[in-house]
Amino acid sequence: MNSPVAWALVFHIIGVVFWIGGLLFGLQVLTMHTQTTSPEVREALAKLESKLFRGIAHPGAAITVLAGIVVVLLQPGYIHQAWLQAKLFLVAILIGLDLIATFRARSFQKGRIEMTRGECRLLHGAVSLVFIGIIIVVMIKPF
User: Fold this and answer.
1) Which residues contact residue 82 at a Cβ distance below 8 angstroms, ignoring those fewer than 6 apart?
2) Angstrom distance (rounded) from CA 64 to CA 61
3) N or C end of the chain: which has fewer CB within 10 A?
4) pTM of the entire structure?
């Protein structure tokens, strides 16, 4: 199966791995950041968070979305399928969670807001649950 759709799906999956991996790991580092008081450690964790979000998660998100658009353009019938509409709804939620995590992390790093371990864990759990939902919808296609 060496078709353009197959290649678009390959890039879509690669993007998802980078996006979700970078986002979840970034949130885990952010959780540790909220618990440390050492200025040197806080600075190092802030740099790592930025690298994970900007260098891994967000490029992965861009690849995921662009490859997904290519798949739909190559297979326009997909857009009318209920499973894909459910997936796109969950992806919109995931993008929202990503933006919340990113902007909260930046504000926390600059000292404008305080974040708690619980807030970071809640974001981590929400991203995980939405991602699991996406996997179920794509693999099972319940509607």
Assistant:
1) 143
2) 5
3) N
4) 0.94
